[in-house]
C-alpha cells in the first residue's frame, strides 16, 4: 500500500498549488484551485440560474512540471450541479451523481472502458472503486478539529495518476461541502 499526503496552506488560493507528496516527501503532483476570470465571475453571478454557467472555480491537478493531469468542472444548472472530468488531453467525461442515502452521494464515470465509482462513508473517508474493486482511499487529516490536509492510500499500485484523480475528485466533489 502506498501513502501520499496533501497539506493545505493557511490560505488555499488560486495562485498557489498544494503539493501532494509520497512517503519519501517527494512531490508527485500538485492540487490547484483555479478561479474564473473577473468577467466570468460577473456573468456567473448575473446568469447563474438562467443559463448553464460554471461555478466560480474548479480544482485541477498537475505534474510537478506543470503539465495538466485532471480537472473537475462543475456547472450549476436549474436542476442541480453537473460535473465533468477533464482529462489531460482535454477530453471530457461526464460524472454521474446518484444519491445513496438521505444526504450522501456516489459519483460514477467510465474511463478507458473501466467503470469507476467514487463515494464517501460516514467517517468522511472517500473510496475509489474500479469495476467494483476498491483501489484507493482519501481521508481527511485533522488536527484539533481543524482539517489540515488529506491522506491518500493506493491499495495495490503506486500510480501518481490515481493519486491525482483522487485528489481532484475529493476536493471538487466532497471537500467543497465542508
Characterize the main sheet. Answer: 12 strands, antiparallel, barrel
**Span of the ends, CA to CA:** 28 Å
CATH fold group = Porin
Number of helices: 2
Strand content: over 45%
Shape: globular
Nearest-angstrom radius of gyration?
16 Å
| CATH 2nd-level architecture | Beta Barrel
CATH domain class name: Mainly Beta
Strands in their spatial order, largest beta sheet = 1-2-3-5-6-7-8-9-10-11-12-13
Compute the number of structural domains: 1
Quick structural summary:
The chain has one domain: Beta Barrel (Porin), CATH 2.40.160. It has two helices and 13 strands.
What does this structure look like?
- By secondary structure, the chain is mainly β.
- It has a single domain, classed as Porin, CATH 2.40.160.
- The protein has two helices and 13 strands.
- It has a twelve-stranded antiparallel beta barrel with strand order 1-2-3-5-6-7-8-9-10-11-12-13.
- The longest helix has 15 residues, at 160-174.
- The protein is globular and about 40 Å long.
- The two termini are 28 Å apart.
Amino acid at each position: 500500500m502506498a501513502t501520499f499526503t496533501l497539506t493545505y496552506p493557511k490560505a488555499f488560493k488560486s495562485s498557489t498549488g498544494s503539493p501532494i507528496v509520497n512517503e519519501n516527501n517527494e512531490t508527485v503532483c500538485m492540487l490547484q484551485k483555479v478561479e474564473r476570470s473577473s468577467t466570468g465571475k460577473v456573468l456567473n453571478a448575473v446568469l447563474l440560474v438562467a443559463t448553464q454557467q460554471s461555478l466560480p472555480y474548479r480544482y485541477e491537478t498537475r505534474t510537478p512540471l506543470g503539465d495538466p493531469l485532471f480537472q473537475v468542472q462543475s456547472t450549476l444548472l436549474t436542476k442541480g450541479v453537473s460535473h465533468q472530468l477533464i482529462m489531460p488531453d482535454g477530453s471530457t467525461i461526464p460524472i454521474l451523481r446518484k444519491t445513496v442515502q438521505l444526504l450522501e452521494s456516489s459519483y460514477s464515470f467510465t474511463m478507458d472502458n473501466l467503470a469507476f465509482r467514487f463515494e464517501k462513508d460516514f467517517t468522511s473517508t472517500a473510496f475509489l472503486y474500479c469495476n467494483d474493486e476498491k483501489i484507493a482511499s482519501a481521508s481527511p487529516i485533522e488536527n484539533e478539529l481543524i482539517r489540515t490536509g488529506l491522506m491518500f492510500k493506493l491499495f495495490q499500485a503506486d500510480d501518481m495518476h490515481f493519486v491525482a484523480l483522487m485528489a481532484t475528485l475529493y476536493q471538487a466533489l466532497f471537500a467543497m461541502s465542508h
